[in-house]
Design a protein that fits this description.
single chain; globular
Length: about 170
């Protein structure tokens, strides 16, 4: 599936590039707003999957989840059939929701500022959280940084994926 990577180098300049994985086929669709995506998916998605479970194709935005109230997070967790342990921090609960949504086939997007952490990767950070590391930080691979000539401090948006077998962080 084709993906869009949106990079803002200043307040007036925005660069959009297609990001295709090695196993992708076909052209990428134009990005829709989260409301339009969820409405379109509701129309096209069958009510029940073949296994008899309710299909949960949601389009979530990590930035909106970070601004959500505890009640909204609980409602979303209930919809995804995820138990939010009360001893876990709010950020860990958001990470649990994101992982469950991605595992069920939902689309999760994120937008943040690039922070070069090491030689091989960078992380997305959010000014609302004072650019501090949090469990739901999204890793940006070195290959994407080099391919799109990204620099620390640039605003980057993209589709979030679950980490690989040995990965620790969500990835862009």
């Amino acid at each position: 599936m084709g993906e869009k990577l949106k990079i803002s180098t200043s307040q007036t300049e925005t660069i959009e590039a297609d990001v295709s994985s090695a196993h992708s086929q076909g052209a990428a669709k134009a990005p829709l707003s989260s409301t339009a995506r969820s409405n379109e998916e509701r129309k096209s998605a069958p009510a029940d999957s073949p296994s008899g479970e309710l299909k949960t194709d949601l389009a979530l935005d990590l930035n909106e989840l970070q601004e959500s109230s505890a009640e909204e997070l609980e409602t979303l967790a209930r919809d995804l059939d995820v138990y939010l342990h009360p001893a876990r921090s709010r950020h860990q609960q958001i990470l649990d929701i994101i992982r469950a949504a991605l595992a069920s086939g939902s689309t999760v997007t994120a937008e943040g500022f690039l922070d070069q952490v090491g030689d091989s990767f960078a992380m997305l950070r959010w000014p609302r959280l004072n650019f501090l590391p949090v469990p739901e930080d999204v890793c940006v691979a070195r290959s994407l940084i080099e391919q799109h000539h990204l620099r620390p401090g640039q605003k980057v948006a993209g589709t979030v994926q679950l980490p690989g077998q040995r990965g620790k962080f969500l990835s862009l």
